[in-house]
Amino acid sequence: MRSSYLFTSESVSEGHPDKVCDRISDAIVDEFIRADPMARVAAETLTTTNRVVIAGEVRGPDSVTHDRLIELTRAAIKDIGYAQSGFHWENAEIECYLHRQSVDIAQGVDSSGDKDEGAGDQGIMFGFACTETKALMPAPIYYSHRILHDLAAVRHDGTEPGLGPDAKSQVTLSYENGKPVRAASVVVSTQHDESLSQEDVREIVRPYVEKALPDGWMCDDGQFYVNPTGRFVIGGPDGDAGLTGRKIIVDTYGGAAPHGGGAFSGKDPSKVDRSAAYAARYLAKNVVAAGLSDRCTIQLSYAIGVAKPLSVYVDLHGQGTIEESKLEAVLQDIMNLSPRGIREHLKLNNPIYERTAAYGHFGREPDADGGFSWEKTDLIDSLRSAI
User: Among 44, 251, 294, 354, which one carries the catalytic annotation?
Assistant: First the structure.
């Protein structure tokens, strides 16, 4: 592993077109789970200029109507802050084409008789944790999220009314001896009021970037880029079309760890693309929190209709205090990694997903109602006892 290098990650705000779609898709997941915790949902959303199209497959109560989902969609768009001529929560045309889940899929994933609930699809999922930040996340993505989260907060509370919902950040960190030590460059592109100049936006954004980074980490002024094109008034779905699931690296580790390729948003927890990725992060975080390694990557794999994972792989990157093969066995002993086992252990059959749609699914604080349960470090004692 190289000891000195530059590494970059990006984040996008809740108003980015793809994130608007993720938010709507996850609001739909929450609504179905609220009505029936065992509902099945695979919801995809497309947005463009004053238009939203929702499609996918569901199995849940008839009380969740298309009219109700359109109402939720408008509420999500309004909460993000879109009341612009090109994309307005009240005026956008919304079409909903959700239909019943395929019976062929249902027979493979439902439990019956002695058959346990199977995985909702085949695939590979990765989890990762490291000691670079207090959240045990890679530093570049952690600070990229933090910059946009802080800018969104002051936009919502009225402190910075000139900022718009659509924004992106990119943080390049300098690593020395394998540790991040400073920002080499920072890029922030944020939608803004037409009355503001590029320099105005730069001065608005600067203190929030400086606050988001550790003391002394701010890059040189010449490497601080704000709205490099000079103007960003037209944004959101009016500027670019959005789709659910196109920001999977933003959602996870910013490229610092592998990704299995499956998106999270719009999927109920029977889909291992989501739930097993949460479980892999949960296990990796607990391994690092227990002091067993400074870095941990975990891969899980599944086959559709099969309950148990086909493989469990652990990589401690040469920094572990335990053999990886032993840890692979221990992890399967202390947590049931079947779809049902993951859902029950992490209490995933709850309406906790809309809040995950922006600023990352990982590195967040667990909520009292069960949100971000995969960020808990409650396996530390079990891990230490087992080894």
Answer: 44
